[in-house]
Amino acid sequence: MAVRAVVIEADGGSRGNPGPAGYGAVVRDPETGEVLAERSEAIGTTTNNVAEYRGLIAGLEAAAELGAVEVEARMDSKLVVEQMCGRWQIKHPGLRPLAAQAAGLVGRFASVRFSWIPRERNKHADALANAAMDAAAGRNPARATVQPPRLVEPPREVAGPDSAARAAAREVAARAATGKATGTDPATTPASWEPRPTEEATRLILVRHGETERTVQKRYSGRGDVPLTARGRAQARATAARVAALAPSVAAVVSSPLSRCTATAEAIAALVGNPPVRPEDDLIECDFGVWEGRTFAEVRDGWAGELDAWLASTRVAPPQGESFTAVAERTGRAVERLRGAYPGETVVVVSHVSPIKLVLRDALAAGDAFLHRLYLDTAGISVLDLYPDGGVAVRSVNDTAHLTDA
Q1: Cα angle vertex 127, ends 121, 131, to 5°?
Q2: What is the pTM of this model?
């Protein structure tokens, strides 16, 4: 029977690193702690990290078989958790295919969160992994049995709605607390300036929709379904020609479900091989609540205190609206799904100013002030490359050269 949400506990190890290795994974009901599935296997001679990734993959496969929609993956391997969150580089070439396989599985779910837990709270998966290691070493023990603990204390979350900059700062502080200087840990070696082959990356061509009456009038335009103006339709056609020149081959065109985006996306699709335009709800504009359709001056007059609080923190929502933190969480999910679903391919993403700004903020590891300093024109194009090892390269931001005559 399908379940909506599950918790995965996964582990792996080897006796010798490399040595006889195995993994274990447990899938639980998040409310009751009931074990829904177990996976374990002896995998011959390999390293701890390979075995840990194999445990994660087995857990994600089991969750998919159960029909889960939302997943929390808990591991005591900080390396795997941080690499899957894209904050640590994957230096070892033997781990990159495993990370790519795990990322592909992540793309099957609506929501996946990775959390680090201490080893003593991962005893069930650890016991399964140890039994598998015994089998790999030829000891052929009886299958480990562990009484499933109830999930009481929440894990220490590693992945969440924080920006990449805040997450990186938290990791630097953790290294300082343990006496490790920045860059001395092989798993956190700073990124190299060495050029990377673009054919390995998933390329996202981020397009803001064309002009609408509300953009002309500088009104908050969130969930209201406002059509393109005549100039907006001309911008969409010009943008389509520019995208076609940038990308000889496009695997998919995904779009916010609002008509100003789908009309822009359809114009682009017509010039890049006519792939179907796929609506993606997580790319919709921020919900501005009661400010919808109003100008900044009108909001300042009517909600001065609420506006100041909103401008000061991405965690604050407009009255009856949505915070930028919430928008960032869902746009991040969409980006990760695209990374997993289209490895090494080009995807056109048509969205709105807020989601695109938040994607670029996190891609550039910038702070929240970035959101107020970046200007995105209607029908502007930004290009982002996502690598299988979690690396990111921002190729361009707000390209509008194609709009000269629109």
Answers
A1: 165
A2: 0.56
- The whole-angstrom separation of Cα 9 and Cα 73 is 6
**pLDDT single digits (tens) 217-254:** 999 999 999 999 999 999 999 999 999 999 989 999 99
What is the count of structural domains for the chain? 2
Q: Which domain holds residue 311?
A: 198-403
Give residues with Cβ within 8 angstroms of 187, minimum separation 6.
79, 82, 83, 88, 89, 91
Give the pLDDT confidence score for residue 86 in this predicted structure: 79
Domain boundary among 159, 189, 217: 159
Catalytic residue among 38, 72, 266, 285: 285
Residues of the chain with pLDDT under 70: 1-2, 139-199, 405-406
- Burial of residue 344 (CB within 10 Å: 0-12, 13-18, 19+) is middle
Catalytic site residue from 209, 280, 352, 402: 209
Q: Is 231 annotated as a binding residue?
A: no
Q: Is residue 354 part of a domain?
A: yes
Is 285 considered catalytic here? yes
Concerning whether 124 is annotated as a catalytic residue, the answer is no
Distances (CA, A) of 106 to 56, 149, 311, 341: 10, 26, 33, 9
